[in-house]
Design brief:
Layout: H1 3-23, H2 30-47, H3 55-80, H4 86-91, H5 103-109, H6 115-127, H7 131-138, H8 142-165
Helix pairs in contact: 1-2, 1-3, 2-3, 6-8, 7-8
Length: 166
């Protein structure tokens, strides 16, 4: 199949892709999700079997599924990543130096955390371990590690807010 044959299909189904993006309440990286939708449309066009129904319903399901998969991946990446506010970067003295992420530094800012919460911070920050990896290493359930994470985040937010007020 040539790209010339696909161009009219892409043009016809562009509004559908935008509608799916709107229905999924995607407001960040719309262009990336649109591109994912176009790729999914291409795949749907190549794999479509007329015996199984109409192309439009097949394309809709295929595109929506692919965008939802990418949305899930993006959310997981966002959960694992920490993006400090601009206020933080204004407080850094040397704007070209990386903030130290050594265990001693982390322990100094996490003084109010429990041992388990501290383990989550250290494993996540220093080793980039997932919840499952931490649970396996500590011989606990993933749910327990998620509770440590939730509690640690809540306490650390309070610390950050207090420091910004000072």
């Amino acid at each position: 199949m040539e790209a010339k044959q696909f161009d009219p299909i892409a043009k016809q189904y562009t509004p559908m892709i935008y509608k799916i993006i709107a229905r999924l309440h995607i407001y960040k990286n719309k262009d990336e999700f649109f591109q994912t939708g176009l790729i999914a449309l291409w795949d749907a066009y190549k794999n479509f079997d007329e015996a199984k129904g109409t192309f439009s319903s097949y394309a809709y399901s295929y595109i929506k599924g692919r965008i939802m998969t990418e949305l899930t991946k993006a959310r997981k990446q966002e959960e694992r990543s920490v993006y400090p506010d601009e206020v933080y970067w204004d407080t850094v003295q040397d704007k070209h130096a990386e903030p130290p992420l050594e265990a001693e530094f982390l322990q100094s800012i996490c003084a109010d955390l429990t041992d388990k919460e501290m383990k989550w911070v250290l494993y996540t920050s220093l080793n980039d371990f997932s919840v499952k990896e931490i649970a396996k290493r500590e011989h606990v359930t993933a749910s327990a590690v998620k509770q440590w994470r939730s509690s640690a985040k809540r306490k650390l937010k309070k610390v950050v807010i207090l420091e910004m007020k000072d």
